[in-house]
Amino acid sequence: MFVRPAEPTDEKLLWAMLYEASYARENGIDSPDHLRGTPKLAHYVEGWGAAGDLGVVGGFDGVPLGAAWLRLFGPDDPAYGYVDADTPELAIGVAPEGRGTGLGTALMSALHDTAREKYDAISLSVRLENPARRLYQRLGYVDVPGSGQVNLAGTASVTMVLRLR
Ligand SMILES: CC(C)(COP(=O)(O)OP(=O)(O)OC[C@H]1O[C@@H](n2cnc3c(N)ncnc32)[C@H](O)[C@@H]1OP(=O)(O)O)[C@@H](O)C(=O)NCCC(=O)NCCS
Questions:
Q1: Is 135 near ligand 1, meaning CB less than 6 Å away?
Q2: C-alpha triplet 29, 20, 49: angle, nearest 5°
Q3: Whose CA is closest to 132, among 49, 44, 66, 64?
Q4: 159 band by pLDDT with thresholds 50, 70 and 90
Q5: Does the Cβ of 93 fall within 6 Å of ligand 1?
Q6: What is the mean pLDDT of the chain?
Q7: Could you tell me how far CA 60 lies from the centroid of its own chain?
Q8: What sign does the dihedral 126-37-89-138 (CA atoms) show?
Q9: Does 134 sit in the ligand 1 pocket, CB within 6 Å?
Q10: Ligand 1 in contact with 72 (CB < 6 A)?
Q11: Strand stretches in the chain, DSSP E
Q12: Which atom of ligand 1 is least distant from the CA of 136?
């Protein structure tokens, strides 16, 4: 397994991993390219490598299969797990063939280590039914009280936060 910092040239991979992270296939979006037309998702990746962006890429045998990354959002363009303008939000996706191998854990641990130098905390948004919640809890993320919300499709999500320092 390898984990390395995400470079600006990794934007294409991040679109593919955003596709996994956002359950876009299940929501009827048929390719990562079509995420670009969904602003509430596209802003997690668009223009990757901007100031404040931080990410890691990982995989096996030199083949990237996952990524975890952070981006700051403002009150005028909040992402799903927005807490405040100083707290970056995490997105993570691992390709189906790489799941359950420890890659997600390794990506998050590496990202936390780098992020600690720069940020006090990290937030994320996750569906209540997503097994990824167990991973986040194991790594120290806690629910933000009162952050639960139900979208039009009836899916419940919650915002979680990890304090880094
Ligand atoms: C969540 C995800 C990044 C974890 O990566 P991974 O390499 O499978 O993670 P690890 O092998 O290090 O850890 C396994 C943990 O991931 C979670 N997990 C396992 N399969 C999962 C799946 N299909 N979907 C979501 N989470 C999963 C569980 O918490 C599991 O822990 P458990 O074995 O105690 O239940 C990856 O499964 C994934 O991309 N899932 C689909 C997209 C997604 O849900 N992204 C997060 C949106 S908030």
A1: yes
A2: 100
A3: 66
A4: very high
A5: yes
A6: 96
A7: 20
A8: positive
A9: yes
A10: no
A11: 2-5, 54-60, 63-71, 89-94, 121-127, 142-143, 149-150, 156-163
A12: 29
Mutate to test the pocket of ligand 1, among 22, 35, 99 (most ligand atoms within 8 A of CB): 99
Which residue segments constitute the domains of the chain, with CATH numbers given?
Answer: 2-119 (3.40.630.30)
HSE at residue 111, side-chain half, CA atoms within 13 A, is: 29
**75 vs 85: CA distance, rounded Å:** 7
* H or E segment and range at residue 138: helix 132-138
CA of 1: how far to CAs of 26, 95, 96, 110, 135, in Å?
Answer: 28, 14, 16, 13, 19
Tell me the pLDDT tens digit for each residue of 11-45.
999 999 999 999 898 888 999 999 999 999 999 99
Structure tokens belonging to residue 132: 């990824």
The pTM for the full model equals: 0.96
In single-letter form, the type of residue at position 86 comes to D
User: Can you read off the two tokens belonging to residue 133?
Assistant: 């919640």
